Amino acid sequence: MPRIPYLDLGGGLNQGKPASGIADKEQVDIENFYPFSTKLIRRGGHRKLNTTAAYAERLTGIFPYRPEGSDAVTTIVGGLTTIAKLEGTEIEAIPAAVDFSIGSSTEPWVMFEYKDIMYAFRKSSNQLIRCDGTYYGAAGLVAPATACTIAEGAAGNIPAADFFGVYTFYNSATNVESNPSTASAKLTHGGTKKIDWTGIAVSTNPQVDARRLYRTLPNNTGEYYFVDQIGNNFDTTYTGDDVLVQDMGRSVSFFNGVPPTGLLFGSVWKERLFCSDGALVYYSEDGLIECFDEDNFIPVFPDDGHEIRAIHAYGDRLVIGKTNKVHYLVGTDPAYFALLTLSDRHGCASHHSMQSAEGLLFWLGLDNVYRSDGNAVVGIASEKLEEILKTATAAQLSTSFAAVYPALNWYCLTIPGVAELTYNYKTNAWVKMSTLAGISFMAEHFDDDYLKQLYTTDTSGNVYLFNDPTYNYDDDDTTIGNAITAYFITKDMGDKTGEASVAVMYRVHLLAEQYAENITLAWQRSDGTEINSRTVSLDYDEPWKTYSLSTRRQAKAHTRLKVTYTGAAQIELQGFAVDTDSIQRMATRPH
């Protein structure tokens, strides 16, 4: 009676191949167990954080907002038409700026922080949005709509000459400034007097807390130099401008236009925001990610007929994923950017699937999941996840999202309506990680001590902590504390003397610690039909726990073992073994 031991369970999922092509450590199906070294561990719980009530809208964005000097992280979430935050156990809407609204969409949000401001945009929001935790509104500052008036004032030192003046709206906290107003009427100054300014408009944008005044040099036009700043957003006059040429500051910028409309996704790279509407890549001014010149865009092979689907900052490269190829920018200045190609065969399906960790870049293509070290590109999923990937539609691929969790070397990928998957990029192992609450978004988060976590949202308006090691249950919209079901199914096995052998399975042995829990063992045919099953206890102190489970009356050439666990403890399985005996080979059986 041969005993077949399996002491390495770290291979993960491998679907769609015959038993001869599946390693002993791999499984034809595995869910909610994850490989760690050579063992399998039941994942942690999916704990709902807003236990008071669900938010009024579906949530498809999460961001850990922590301005400089703050002792705590604020979890910002994006809804269909609003932006909100998690306060304790309740999700509260953040007020919108006056006359500002967000178009409804179920598309995932892009969220990031820069200079203590959280920014967000997505398909259908149609613009870059800024949020300081107290309100949200349109990013960028529209130039003043009216010109000011300059006139001679009291006695002073301004020389006789012709002058023009302009002014801008300004945010002193972020250094964001608008383009200038149209120029004032010409002032023909008689000399030895100051200049007084009137008609300086007040901005309705709540981020404006100052206005800046600029004036031409004597008898000059078209260039304006800094005179002074009005440090509020209510005074409409400025009296006593006596600034001489040698004391004037830098010239006003005409490149501080508002962000483009129709933006879908983007990333901050080298102190600029790079973003796309699917056709072009736009970039902001240096250090001013709300300010865009109308000529600041990069065509990325616009005549190839393919869409831009992703932009991701990857070290000294900005990766740009199109549906046919993946390219990248290098350089330090727009004048010297170089556009190169990382992969000319493997395109990208989704911006949110493109993630990086420990020098590796990952993304979901239209036919595979890809990994790159910046040079080689390797498909990592098609052979192992064949049955899953072939069912995904183009729409499901385009809205897929992912997050990385370096503590466990995880790249977590969700293809909506298809599968929730986790890939260990150190061991090349895939598993399915299904939750009772259908995940609508996942993102990296961190706690107040800067330790990384994974947060998720669901379609009902809830926020969760994923794989909580201190919590043993799965919450959903209606119930707190559901049991987690985890299972794995081995490849077809016999007596290891040949694939056509007909074998009788007698016993199953599990190598595990003692748990006051039960586990279910079942023999299956290759088509999933159950032959025999038994629920047994793990509450024994022996390392190897032995259970009788026979297939004698239904011996088949291809038999699989399914191990199912539904319990509270996060059990670890270090291995298993089966006792088997061959009946006879298929070739010698009577017909």
Helix and strand arrangement:
Elements: E1 3-6, E2 12-13, E3 26-31, E4 33-36, E5 39-42, E6 45-48, E7 61-65, E8 74-78, E9 83-87, E10 90-93, E11 110-114, E12 117-121, E13 129-131, E14 136-138, E15 149-158, E16 161-163, E17 165-171, E18 176-177, E19 187-189, E20 193-198, E21 210-215, E22 225-230, E23 238-241, E24 265-269, E25 272-276, E26 280-283, E27 297-299, E28 308-314, E29 317-322, E30 326-330, E31 338-343, E32 355-357, E33 360-364, E34 369-372, E35 377-379, H1 386-389, H2 394-398, E36 401-405, E37 410-415, E38 419-424, E39 429-432, E40 439-446, E41 452-458, E42 463-468, E43 484-490, E44 501-512, E45 518-525, E46 530-537, E47 544-548, E48 559-567, E49 572-585
Polypeptide structure, described:
The chain is mainly β. The protein has 3 domains: 3-43 and 485-588, Sandwich (Jelly Rolls), CATH 2.60.120; 47-139 and 258-471, 7 Propeller (Methylamine Dehydrogenase, Chain H), CATH 2.130.10.10; 149-247, no CATH class. It is 2% helix and 45% strand. The chain is built from 2 helices and 49 strands. The longest helix is centred in the last third of the chain and has 5 residues, at 394-398.
Write the CATH architecture name of the largest domain: 7 Propeller
User: End-to-end span in angstroms?
Assistant: 26 Å
Give the total of domains. Answer: 3
The CATH superfamily name of the largest domain is YVTN repeat-like/Quinoprotein amine dehydrogenase
| Number of separate strands | 49
Main structural class = mainly beta
- Mean pLDDT over the full residue set: 93
Helix count? Answer: 2
Assigned CATH class of the largest domain: Mainly Beta
Main beta-sheet annotation: 6 strands, antiparallel
* Beta-strand percentage range: over 45%
Q: Report the principal-axis shape.
A: elongated
CATH topology of the largest domain: Methylamine Dehydrogenase, Chain H
